[in-house]
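@channel sequence for tomorrow's demo:
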Amino acid sequence: MYRFLLSRQWVILTLIALLLMPVMVKLGYWQLHRHERRVASNHLIADNLEAKPVPVESLTAPGTAVPKRQIYRTVTATGHYDTAHEVVARQRTAADGDSIGYHVITPLVLADGRSVLVNRGWIPAGTDLTKFPKVPAAPSGEVTVTGRLRPDETTAATGIRNKGGLPDRMIMLINSGMVARDLPAAERPVGGYIELATTSPKPSGRQPELIPDPDHGSIGMHMGYAIQWWLFTAMVPVGWIILVRRERRERLAARDAAAQEGGTAEPASAAVASP
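structure tokens (generated this afternoon):
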């Protein structure tokens, strides 16, 4: 009755079904793990944003990477801005998610002579992308900045390609090691940079648009995708059984139809043969 399952067509179909199920189960767990990492990351960001500010020098140093557990940690730094070595990071999106411009990166020289890069915020690109834009002046004198500690940007982490041949004082990646090449030796910056939140004393005049806090409330669709993959896994054997039963019904119907045709044809031939 089920001998058709040994046919080439059904053997291939069954093997495909058997291969698909573990693959889809694995894809479901992959999405689950992404969900768990997103939730853990959200908790870490929330805790770091709410933590008591600490001096940036206590978490990072020149030539070191910002520890993952300290990303978005609220930090402070006191010093004076070195506007002569200010640069802008190209192709950055404003808070509205649409406007493209620059992030203004200004070294803040600390009391010990070292520096920390401060992302002072976003400015529009203007009309001439080959010239250094007009940047709102950084506060003069000694200031204390408070902001979020961010790791050095890399192409692998951000997807931003580090192009060469850019106009003077323009960069693609906010990376302390790359910016350090153009700074005085004494101003060697600590690893990472500060995403500015507040300045004391409060600056007068127009300033770059501050970068908003990171979104740490959204968990994405990863859990939903995981459930979908597992539902697809469960549907494979169900679909296989449905196809098998349909095939069996069609074969039985074809056999019954053939039997009925044979039964009606036999009396007709017998009638012709009788005298």
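heads up for whoever presents: The helical segments are 8-50, 155-158, 176-179, 222-273.
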